[in-house]
Amino acid sequence: MKKSLSSLFVLLFLTGFLNAASLKDSVCIVRSNLSEKSTTFLQNYGSSLKKQGYGKYATIIDNYLEGSFGSGFVYEGSNGKKYVITNRHVVISGDTVTIQFEKDDGTYDEYKDLPVLAIDDDLDVAVIELPSTARKSGISVKTSAVSDGEDVWTAGFPGLGGKPAWQFGKGSVTNSSARIDELVSSSITTIIQHSAQVDGGNSGGPLLVKDSSTSLGYRVVGINTWKAANRENTNFAIPMKAVKTFVDNVIARKNSSGLIENRIEKFNNSIANKEETFGKMSRFISNDMVSSLSSKTFLNIVNTASSEAQDIILANFIVDPLEGIRYAIAAYVWNSFRRRGELIAYTTGTPEAVDSAYNVTFTIDGKTPFTSTWIKEQGLWKISDFNGIASGSEITGASTVTCYDPFVLDLSGSVFFPNQGSLPFAISFNYRTELYGYGFKYVSDTIEGVGYNIFLMDFSFFVPINFGKVIVTPYATAGLGSFREKEGTEFDFYFGYMLGAGLEVAYDAGNWAPFIGVGYSGLNPSIMGNIDTKNSVDVKVGIKFVRNASFNLW
Known about the structure:
By secondary structure, the protein is α+β, with helices and mostly antiparallel strands. 22% of the residues lie in helices and 43% in strands. Helix 3 runs antiparallel to helix 4 and helix 10 runs antiparallel to helix 11.
């Protein structure tokens, strides 16, 4: 890393230094200012994690509270006003932003507590209006397409030693019209893939081409937004053609997405889109809702999420704790409209204005109402409460019925009724995934008056259903193994089978879960069928332990 960094500084020295020096006056650091509610929430949650022994994740929160940052650049509107353009994800968690322009002596021209004028969720773009006292030049833009192999430059303030540091790098366009729907729907725009330097903190900064006819010597062709994790020098920028259209509409106050009816329509389209996942729902979750959630409710939401959702929430939490919380709420809202992963038919009520907000009711399956409150935040209508969870209500309704068991191992003992002589019993040990498991079972039983020691490998199919901390699991099981007949001092061995089905009820106590169960067991010592099957009622008591690795945070 140090070697490549040294090489980079040499490269920067060799590239257009004079132009870069003046360009730097129009590229800025963008800092997101958390609201007092968000700060208090994170401080309290960090303290809670420390008390639970999760110091690693509490440290993530502490570091986050020290401040995150990205990059941006100055754009001059047709109205003569100056704006800063950056990425949505740079400013999404803040009530306001602080803009800093680094001067040659290391100090800053700083503009504090600026509101976010508007954001575009699809493009990941945000617009901030600079005060009239900001004497900064806008960078000219180029909306025509770039070409494969064309030289491009990146400018911004990626982190170095935890602080933003100016970086100006050179590369080339490696794909002028990449189609990656996971980043931006190709129906909206293609994106620019390039090899110029991009590091954490470059988000929102400009992708540039040289143009000697402009005052700064460059034009902006895109906004640097993503970096491929598993490939070198593979970075992506949003083309300025799409960005300029959005920004100009915002300046001209033609942003139709600011209407509540259009926003609800977009919400419904997202819910119904089979190609999308719950992560897309995060764009509709307000900062106000994130910071209003209690730790207890948040943990309840996470503990009833699927393993895939857990992984996504954790990955986002590590980068941005508030985004992790936002994704958890998004999973809750998403699942409210689904049963076993399938969309449930629902109707949407007419938005009702209440003060400066709107109330919207969604009726699931014709009978279950979910109420929501929408407020305007960063120029868009977003959910500030859903089914009362932000105001302290317990999680109720369809979203609590989640098919997932967070424990991967269980140990149980059981007895069988009726018995023939001594009370028969079984001891089993199982490994579980979400919907199936396999393991070993030892059974001591009497069949037709003959005693057996039975060793089985069994396979089970589970349908776990979560009701908060309670996990109700119907199951079916089948096993094959060795039946050792014990009659007096003589022993015979058979190869037989077991079939069963039943119901378990467990309580998630954190790192372990006690459970009880009742079911049917059918034992037959001989696959050849010369001994009758014994049908019994199986009553079991056990413990689940070893949580899925994705649950370590909670």
